[in-house]
Amino acid sequence: MSATRRQILSRASALGAGIAFTGALSELFAGTAAAQNLGHTRYGPLVPDPNGLLDLPEGFRYTVLSREGDPLRSGEGLVPSNHDGMAAFAGRGGRTYLVRNHENRVSAKIPVPAVERLTYDPAGKGGCTALTLDRRNRVLSERVAIAGTAVNCAGGHTPWGTWLTCEETEDKAGTNGYAKDHGFIFEVDPTDPHRTGAVPLTAMGRFQHEAIAIDPRNGVVYETEDAFLKPFGLFYRFLPNKPLGGAGSLRAGGRLQAMRVPGVPDLSTIQDTGAAFDGVEWVDVPDPLAASTPTRLQDYGSKGITHAQKLEGCYWGSSCVYFVSSFARGTDGSAADHYGQIWRYDPQRRRLTLVIVFGPDTDVQLPGESPDNICLSPSGGLMVCEDGNGAQHVFGVTRRGEVYAMARGRQNIGTPDAPEWGEFAGVTFSPDGDTMYVNCYTPGTTFAVTGPWRR
């Protein structure tokens, strides 16, 4: 297949049926100009929003659920800044629970308010908030779910209905004013955060976490490390001592391992879709707490370990785990360039397969126009958040591989004295598939998008 016609295998729906995507997937991140012309499949072209917030295809509409700086309905303070990863959970009576990350650093404009028994480190400004929605997407409650963490980027949901929020930092106590070490995963219960509290899952490693996905058959947790500069991150798996044990079970510990692909020290060097590697090895991480040496720099033996730049999105589909490398740049130290890869790992076969490559043999010029958060849509396609410059988009890929622009952020575009509308993040669907929820990173905004999704 040519470099501009790629194939990806994913599941058709929550039932897990496998389907194939083919199409000009390189257009997915071809930049704003190309995106203007992508919306002529699936749902039609994007219609400019007269309110200047969110362009959608005809027949779709949005509701702003929450914006940074507004009062939290719990009375705990203000809605924090920097909305990022998110997941939706089913509740009783048609309710939906949203758990939303806030990727706040020490410089964050609005921190997550500290709440008793839900705060890990009082110096941390990150964390999660939780929203309860009725069946018409009206906000019934909004509260702090965890506080005192740092740079909560992405994460993932568990088979038992909780959210694992990931800190994308390696700052130790004494750095940036922190009182405790950071770089951990924390578990958040969407209905009652006090059940899970603010307890770091230390056995799962201390590094620049991005996202996780769990094998629902055996409870193995896969983790991505978003390391921007060399030495780049690793792809990990965590073997829990108490697999699939429910909320709090991951505190029982387990083994953290890193992926070694024999003969492939850097995933960026693999450029051909369909390239597969059998005999993938998993090597114990010598010191998961990274007391003196970051996990990606530790000694993995004479065979070394496999690195990749910008490992980000991670999800489980059918019987495999998929993970994203947003881009690789030789100028940063990568062995080769690309503008996005999606990999599939089959645990049963111990086989790693490259299923999508974006560029550099496409017309993409900005490495920032790269895949980030990904989710499966109710129709079996993909929804992908763009993380780049200028106008920001949520793109879709149909079952036939057609690429289309699903949403475009417009606020402040072309206004010299105002910041641009930030990247999209945290795209997810309601349990019934009738609503797409998505965040704008800055100014932090959570949207609910409804329309003819099943058309």
Shape: globular
Strand content: 35-45%
Low-confidence segments: 1-40, 360-369, 413-419
Q: How many beta strands in the DSSP annotation?
A: 29
Number of helices: 1
Largest sheet: 6 strands, antiparallel
- Separation of the first and last Cα atoms: 30 Å
The ordered string of helix (H) and strand (E) elements is: EEHEEEEEEEEEEEEEEEEEEEEEEEEEEE
Q: What is the averaged pLDDT score? A: 85
**Based on helices, strands and strand pairing, what is the structural class?**
mainly beta
Relative helix content: under 10%
Q: Rg to the nearest angstrom?
A: 20 Å
Walk across the major sheet and give the strand order: 3-4-26-25-24-23
Verbal overview:
- InterPro entries: PhoX, TAT_signal.
- It holds the Pfam family PhoX.
- With 455 residues, the chain is mainly beta.
- The protein has a domain at 31-67 and 377-455.
- It has one helix spanning 32-35; strands spanning 6-11, 18-23, 46-47, 54-57, 61-67, 83-90, 96-102, 126-133, 139-149, 152-157, 163-167, 185-188, 209-214, 221-225, 235-240, 254-260, 276-277, 281-284, 311-317, 320-325, 341-346, 351-357, 370-376, 382-387, 392-397, 403-409, 424-429, 435-440, 445-450.
- The strands form seven sheets. The protein has a six-stranded antiparallel beta sheet, with no helix packed on it.
- A hairpin with a 5-residue loop joins strand 8 and strand 9 (139-149).
- The radius of gyration is 20 Å and the shape is globular.
- The relative contact order is 0.18.
